[in-house]
From TrEMBL:
HAMAP family: GlgC. GO terms for biological process: glycogen biosynthetic process. Residues 16-282 form the Nucleotidyl transferase domain. Pathway: Glycan biosynthesis; glycogen biosynthesis. It comes from the Bacteria. This is Glucose-1-phosphate adenylyltransferase. The gene is glgC_2. CDD domains: ADP_Glucose_PP, LbH_G1P_AT_C.
Amino acid sequence: MIEERQISLLTRDTLALILAGGQGSRLHELTQWRAKPAVPFGGKFRIIDFALSNCINSGIRRVGVATQYKSHSLVRHISRGWSGFKAEFDEFVEILPASMRVDDGWYKGTADAVYQNLDIIRTHKPKFVLVLGGDHIYKMDYGPLIASHNKREADMTLCCVEVSVEEAAGAFGVVKVDTEGRVLEFQEKPAEPAEIPGKPGRVLASMGNYVFNTNFLYQELIRDADSPGSSHDFGNDMLPHIVENYDIFAFRLGDDQKEPAGQPYWRDVGTLDAFWEANMELVDFEPELDLYDTSWPIYTYQMQLPSAKFVHDTADRRGMALNCIVSGGCIISGGQARNSLLFSNVRIRSYSEIEDSVIMPDVEVGRNCKIKRAIIDTGTILPEGTEVGFDADADRAKGFRVTESGITLVTSDHFDQKLHFAR
């Protein structure tokens, strides 16, 4: 009970900054009109909802969200779903757009996004600053992380997660630690990452989450801003310097678990294949990510929609969904969906068949369509008789994007359809 009280006091003295300005170019057309953290995920959520929900569930109620790239739908989502905090209790979720507060430029890198908001951080006088990436899917209690940082009297603590060498190579920053968790080396997206001693084929990847003592953060951001040639990025510039000159510790996702519970869930959905796979995992009988867990809910904004509806029941025309997640507002009218995830307000017309697919909000599937192993982006209207996912060459010839593993992405732009809402 005493430990819980200490953690509560520490989280109340923490300001979280979520870096949500990234383009997410490896998601291609999914981020053509929206920032990566605004991409819908899991039926009714947005990617950023996971970092925001982790903050609220951890007792951190002072949150800034740094936005930049095509941020309209992200800002709208945060304004509608995350604005109900009490200012008199010093609670808030504030949007921090690139606004030329320091110079006449945009955010130049992840470190610069924090540096340009130093004056705002100072007004809140936090003891700790928690810097978070806004584009990963995971659940994490930040309380034990901050408590560990405070107990070790560290200047900075870096969050990491165990992944395979194949996943990490060229994709993630990699952390090398000693037996006490002290960071010995930080490698930014190495082609040959350092393996964990005694665990061949496994590495510690940086989650892009950091806890700083506030004064130390000020010192290092100002030093980096004044460094000629710096790209002003945490991974490229700040972390290598800090690790070389200060005692920095690592905190592994799952270290707060009282009993081993297997590999903690964490997904980087930065590619189309990873995005499709992470969504499809939710359809499993016992998914690793439990969205039905009332002890650690994921919050979001969603429209007030009627329940999903299934209509027609004849031998050749039956509205049905098997092994699917079906969100509110969906109408499956004489079509069939199997092993798929249907976001809000999806319409499936008669005689259409959908399998192993992610159907995003406000999609309309015309009659006699066949869709397999596909991602259909928000607002797309598939004309009658459209086939997707059965012939990769044919899909490419139609202008659809097909990944190396055979996942086909279809957006409204492929049909020259103009959306009447922000994505």
